[in-house]
Design brief:
Helix content: 10-25%
Strand content: 25-35%
Number of domains: 1
Order of helices and strands: EEEEHE
Largest sheet: 5 strands, antiparallel
Radius of gyration: 11 Å
Structural class: alpha+beta
Distance between the termini: 10 Å
Number of strands: 5
Shape: globular
Number of helices: 1
Length: 66
Amino acid sequence: MLRIYGKKKTESRYKAFDYSRGAFVDRLIYASIVDDVDREKADKAVKYMNASNPNYIFKLVKIAEA
């Protein structure tokens, strides 16, 4: 399982991201989770987000399954 994280280039910490709302979230319960089978689609989305938002950095992070 994966989660999208992002930050402004001037910030030091990444924050979890809700892809459907297009917003950073403070609580992980609201962050988007991506299944491993959708990794390729998520990679394309993150590349697009990075290209479209030059002041931000986005990345996919593998998360532990509970």
